[in-house]
Design brief:
7-stranded mixed beta sheet; alpha+beta; Alpha-Beta Plaits; RRM_dom; 6-stranded antiparallel beta sheet; elongated; single chain
Length: 712
């Protein structure tokens, strides 16, 4: 509009569902529009217009029938929304022209009819709205400027505003007409003495979402951020902006979240221009994007910056070109050059600024990852590029997806962050007292173990013991090992060490495919060596054993020779070793009088093996702390003679005393040793304890040895 001061069009609408303060929260269609023109200069009003609208679904809620007085029979002969909007535009334009005015602006009682009803419905029905629907004034906010003592804007209603200025309520039974007449009466009153109000607070609706980069140092108000969950994996930032159509998203305010493998996980963080728009976005909880409903929750500014923020100058320069469509390419040959990519895309999809519109993702040492981002000047070029999805470049097929500025930041942050492993001293290493590479992994071909496969993910140690039944008495101390995946959750597997191969064979025969809860569990006999290989990333199935990568000849570390063979500890010493990571249990009397034989191995010699494991690019599993019905957790303190024997036979303690190991879980992936030591500022720890800080894969576990116990 050229000017907003000529004419106001008082505008009111109702939907087939919730109205009033919940208008648009239930995705119901608009069924009623009422409007009337007010000449701001002459202070005159035009003819009141009322139109019924036929929704696609002829169904009205009881509350709607009560509020509007309409029935489905009233709407059967009405016209659809697009026809009524055309009539509105033609009618208003003609009347404004008759008045000799050049422009007009909508005036509404709260923004919900525009932002939460009209724009979302028009977006779903692919209707093109006239320019007048992208700018409006909110009568409540204008009235609050005139009468600031009338109360907060959210608490104002038409009846309360009329009462405040001592105007009589409008006596009108027809829904919509009553509201419009009340609004017109208020407008004329605040235009006159003593208020002489000038309408100046014009709100706008963004035509389209603007992409852009976000810096980690940029302040983000937590009252403006939401988390959307359940998005289709192929959805782009423009799709998300369309879902929130009518609400103004901040520039670069859509951040699609990626999982550990760098793929979208169906979530996004969205940042709006203010808290009012954020609150309206929360009302779209479980609204639909296509056939999927989307959950909307509050989020924080820190979460948004963690996903969308970046510090790379290269990324900032790449994203500095505005109004560009971003495409992500995945699976590129490591030898691919910018010219190869440009040739692959072809002349029908020219890249913005040629090679300047390409961003190759690399590791910190400069090695290519096979990912790249490409800028296109318009949607047409991007669509032509997407047609080459899974076409061949060199000897590899290339995947192409729509992307966002936030995804560029995430991918670059993930690959360019320096891993914690690089801060460890090079081999030969100082042995690290870690139970992640478990002390029970002795090498041996005796098939005295069983593997349980297909356990319910909710299964606990107690469930396994109940499943074993009478065979529980044949389990070695520290002999039950739950296998966890990379995320630290149960994998559905467990290993159990039995007293002999015969007992293991008996368990495999009796318990195979026995039910645990609502699932049957497979039980296989195996050896300690096979168990060790599986826990280190190998596979064990009916086809045989496949060793983990670190056991392959081409990857075997030479550093193993620098470490002595593991020393065996006696049965009693092993039995009463302090359970560093095991969950404490209430002491109970021992189940057997005679202590079973047990070979327990020190964890120290496995430090080099752990170091190699962390540098291998393969999926490893992690054993839980070893427990069993006869572990130290179930025993009271050992008798005096036994304790003396244990003390005499036990090797020197693994770490200096007094001291304890502390486990940290949930560390940021880019956390370094300095970050961890800074976290423990104020506590005493040994000067050389930084060498015992270890980060293990995606679980982000850490061990440190403070001088006093810390509860984390």
């Amino acid at each position: 509009m050229a000017s907003h001061s000529d004419t106001l069009v008082v505008f009111f609408g109702a939907t087939a569902g919730a109205n009033g303060g919940k208008l648009g929260s239930d995705e119901r269609e608009i069924i009623l529009l009422v409007w009337q023109i007010v000449d701001l200069h002459e202070k005159k009003v035009g003819k009141l217009q009322r139109r019924l609208i036929k929704p696609d679904t002829l169904e009205l809620t009881d509350q709607c029938k009560e509020d509007t007085g309409l029935t489905t029979e009233d709407l059967c002969k009405a016209e659809p929304l697009d026809n009524v909007l055309q009539q509105f535009h033609q009618c208003v334009s003609a009347e404004v022209k008759t008045l000799g005015r050049s422009s007009y602006t909508l005036c509404v009682d709260g923004p919900l009819i525009i932002r939460q009803a009209l724009h979302p419905e028009a977006s779903k029905k692919n209707l093109v709205l006239a320019e007048c629907f992208y700018s409006f004034v909110d009568l409540k906010k204008e009235f609050h400027k005139c009468c600031p003592n009338a109360g907060p804007v959210k608490g104002l209603t038409l009846s309360s505003m009329l009462e405040y200025v001592c105007l009589p309520p409008v006596v009108e039974l027809t829904a919509g007409v009553r509201e419009v007449k009340s609004m017109v009466q208020l407008i004329l009153h605040i235009l006159a003495e003593p208020y002489n109000h000038k309408f100046s607070n014009f709100e706008t609706v963004n035509y389209k979402f603007e992409s852009g980069a976000c810096s980690k140092t940029e302040p983000v108000d937590s009252e403006t951020v939401i988390r959307a969950r359940g998005l289709p994996w192929q959805s782009s930032d423009q799709d998300i902006a369309r879902f929130f159509k009518g609400l103004n998203i901040a520039k670069g305010g859509v951040a699609l979240c990626l999982n550990a493998q760098g793929r979208r996980n169906g979530e996004a963080l969205v940042r709006f221009i203010n808290s009012e728009h954020r609150d309206m976005a929360l009302e779209r909880h479980k609204h639909h994007m296509g056939s999927r409903y989307i959950e909307v929750y509050k989020a924080t500014g820190e979460e948004f910056l963690k996903i969308a923020g970046g510090t790379s100058n290269e990324v900032a320069q790449f994203l500095s070109k505005e109004n560009q469509v971003i495409i992500r390419m995945r699976g590129l040959p490591f030898t691919a050059t910018p010219q190869d990519v440009l040739g692959f895309l072809g002349p029908e999809s020219p890249v913005t600024d040629g090679t300047e519109g390409l961003l190759f993702v690399k590791y910190p040492d400069g090695r290519p990852t096979g990912d790249a981002f490409v800028l296109f000047a318009c949607e047409e070029y991007a669509q032509n590029a997407l047609k080459k999805h899974k076409q061949i470049l060199g000897k590899r097929y290339i995947e192409l997806f729509r992307s966002t500025a936030a995804e560029v930041q995430q991918v670059l942050n993930r690959y360019m962050s320096t891993p914690l492993i690089s801060t460890l001293p090079p081999p030969p290493m100082v042995p690290v007292p870690v139970l992640a590479t478990p002390p029970f992994l002795a090498t041996g071909s005796t098939r005295d173990c069983v593997r349980l496969r297909g356990l319910p993910f909710t299964a606990a140690i107690e469930d396994i013991l109940e499943f074993m039944g009478e065979h529980t008495i044949d389990i070695k101390p520290h002999g039950v090992h739950m296998v966890l995946n990379q995320q630290g959750r149960p994998s559905g597997d467990a290993f159990i060490q039995m007293k002999s191969a015969d007992r293991a064979f008996m368990v495999a025969q009796k318990c195979h495919k026995k039910m645990m809860k609502d699932r049957y569990v497979e039980v296989f006999q195996c050896s300690t060596e096979e168990m060790s290989f599986v826990l280190m990333g190998g596979t064990l199935n009916r086809s045989g054993l496949s060793p983990p990568p670190c056991k392959l000849p081409c990857l075997s570390p030479t550093a193993y020779a620098a470490f002595p063979a593991p020393a065996m500890i006696s049965t009693e010493a092993a039995l009463y070793q302090p359970p560093l990571l095991a969950t404490p249990r209430t002491p109970q009397p021992p189940a057997h009088s005679a202590a079973p034989a047990l070979a327990y191995y020190s964890p120290q010699p496995h430090a080099a093996q752990l170091y190699m494991n962390m540098n291998m690019n393969y999926t490893a599993y992690y054993p839980s702390p070893p427990v069993s019905p006869s572990t130290v957790s179930y025993f009271a303190a050992p008798p005096g003679p036994v304790a003396a024997a244990v003390a005499a036979q036990a090797p020197p303690p693994i770490m200096p005393q007094p001291g304890a190991l502390v486990r940290m879980q949930g560390l940021p992936y880019n956390a370094g040793v300095k970050d961890i030591l800074s976290f423990f500022q104020g506590y005493q720890y040994a000067p050389d304890d930084y060498s015992s800080v270890v980060q293990m894969s995606d679980q982000a576990r850490s061990l440190i040895q403070p001088k006093e116990w810390l509860c984390l």
